[in-house]
Amino acid sequence: VQQANRYKDTRVELVKNGTVRDAKSILGVLTLGVTRGTTIVVRADGPHATEVLAALQELAAHDFSE
Amino acid sequence: VAGPIWQWPAEVSTQDPDRLPLLDGPKRLHGAIRQVQEQLSATTAKLRQSGAGKQAGILDAQRLILDDPAFVDAAVGAMARGVLADQAVQSALEPYVGMLLESPDPVFRARAADLRDVIHQVQKALQGRPGTPPNPDRPSIVVARDLAPSQTAGLDRDRVLGFATEMGSATAHTAILAQALGIPAVVGISELLEEVREGQTALLDGDQGTLLLDPPLEAIPVPTPELLPGSDPEPASTVDGRRLEIACNAAGLDDARRAAAAGADGIGLLRSEFLFLGRETLPDEEEQVAVLQEILAALQGRPVILRTLDVGADKPLPTLPQPTEANPALGVRGLRLQLLRRKDLLSQQLRAAIRVAMDRPLRVMFPMVATVAELRSARAVLDEALHAVGATSQKLPQLQIGIMVEVPSAALSAETLAAEVDFFSLGTNDLTQYVFAADRTNPELAHLADSLHPVMLRLIQMVVEGAHRHSKWVGVCGEMASDPWAMPLLIGLGVDELSVHPPIVAKFKARVRALDSRACNRAAREAIGLEDGQQVRRSLTARGLQP
User: Fold this and answer.
1) What is the CA radius of gyration of chain B?
2) Pick from A2, A25, A35: which is nearest to B70 by CB?
């Protein structure tokens, strides 16, 4: 959420089983119920879409488990 | 642990709308949110100081909730429909609490307590009730129906021996925080509050998960007395009455406590980088204020010199990556980096420092100053910060401003610089490397960089004379300050303060009291005319001034 919020001009969304949540909203992300091993789709739209996706991929690669 | 029971005061009911005249709209809500965020920042800072940096993320998440438009917009929307502010907060978050409680995963169910914690904190702020958690006035075992994560994180470890609650689970953040803070805790004891009396002696065992009331005396473990280190809090003067302050270098609260325990006269160098290490985000102003206040409190009225951020390509900081340079030691580092690239960070650090300096002896020092122009730019940022905080330097006479003297050009222009600062602190490690053009990280060149070399002594003499001509004081915060060979020379050259390693404070103060500054001065004058460091040491030995 913090990472996604760094890109004010870019929309970032998480999709799990067809449910879409704003990646910048901690309440939305929390109640999406993503646990370790869950597959989710991250999509971004805006001037920094590529960057934000790379940053989030990096975060996932470094194990952002709670 | 064993101690008297202390019952957590029951919360005032928040259900009676007649007592809550909260009709002045979203502005009040935003104010309350900001207040809670500031409290959370301060508590987070404390957690990081206690080594619970990872667990501090729990409260960071609460701050994110307060920033979340899904919460703020829903609450403001409800208020626009005439709902009272504290109920609007509740109604905005309650659906999420419900969703989390329905989760099959216990980890998510436990997060519902975090949302409720946020709700209660904002409601308390709206009602103008103090956000800081109550604490017992003597070391006690705290007993409560439930403790929220933010309340647990705010417990005063000096006065809370342990705690027990009726509610709660092992996966709850409250239990996780207690463990990280090293507070023994037992959660989930049913009918606890009916069983205990205020002041009753209890024995709490966090590992076994038991709370024993009125334990037999032989069951109470006898605390092992802590060994007191050699401490010497008295000021030190030479036999002829010249005062030399013995302060300590520090990089965090633990160091500051060690320094205070050793009897140091202050902190001569507080490396502010510690505030920025071991974390993923830069600390905000509130957090810096909270940490600095704790450090000043640990020093109990003795002065602390905060060195503003000293990083660069050779002193990297993960949260502040800098491009590589061909000659990092001669590159964009220290004050240069702050002025050229991150004025915002300098200004933020200064605002935090000024706020603390309003009622505590905090001093500020800029690293890597090479020219008067740089000093003036830094002072301009300071003036802006004073203005932003609503202070002036007239109102803050105790706020001393100084510079590190570690670049030869600064040493050579000491007299000019002295007119515009309150003090100098000689950073002898860098000064030596720059004077001899010998990389201090290269062991092959170690023989070149001898801080007792007469050239160094001459430079130090020039700095001290320049400062004293303007009635400004000079300290030494590099390794030279802790070198027992250097002490008589530095006294002889007129240095006013040494910032040393905590374990040698008492030894150094004893040595000061045995020295005569006039004899030191004669030794220093002779040393300046010698050829190298070895000759200087021989001359000291001949005068009986060897360590």
Assistant:
1) 28
2) A25
CA distance between the termini of chain A? 13
Contacts of A19 in chain B (CB under 8 A): none
Active site residue B520: no
Answer for the pair B253, B51: CB distance below 8 angstroms, yes or no: no
Residue B429: in which H helix or E strand, if any?
A: helix B428-435
Separation in Å, CA of A25 to nearest CA in chain B: 5
Structure tokens, B385: 């910060």
Alpha helices per DSSP H over B204-252:
none
> Can you state the angle between helices B25-49 and B85-101, rounded to 10 degrees?
50
Interface residue of B37, B60, B63, B64 to substitute, partner A, most A CBs within 10 Å? B64
d(CA B9, CA B145): 10
Residue B397 Cα to chain centre, angstroms = 22
- Provide, for chain B, the percentages of residues in helix, strand and coil under a 3-state DSSP scheme, each rounded to the nearest 5: 50, 15, 40
Per-residue pLDDT, B238: 96
Pairing mode, if any, of strands B160-165 and B185-186?
parallel
Is residue B387 flagged as an active site residue?
Answer: no
Q: How far apart are CA B202 and CA B214, in angstroms?
A: 6
Is B431 in a helix, a strand, or coil?
helix
Sheet containing strand A11-16, strands side by side: A19-22, A11-16, A41-45
Span B431-464, pLDDT tens digits: 999 999 988 777 677 788 889 999 999 999 999 9
Contact call for residues B331 and B313 (beta carbons, < 8 A):
yes
For residue B164, give the 3-state DSSP assignment: strand
| The dihedral sign for the CA sequence B105, B110, B115, B119 | positive
Reported ipTM: 0.87
Whole-angstrom distance, CA of residue B20 vs CA of residue B125 = 12
pTM equals: 0.56
Per-residue pLDDT tens over the stretch B377-419: 999 999 999 999 887 766 776 789 999 999 999 999 999 999 9
A27 in B contact zone (CB under 8 Å): yes
User: B269: closest CA among B404, B401, B461, B399?
Assistant: B404
Both structure tokens of B484: 């027992």
Substitution target in B40, B44, B62, B67 with the highest count of A β-carbons within 10 Å is: B67
d(CA B269, CA B425): 9
- Closest residue of chain B to A59, computed from CA coordinates: B280
Question: Residue B145 carries which side chain, given as an amino acid letter?
Answer: R
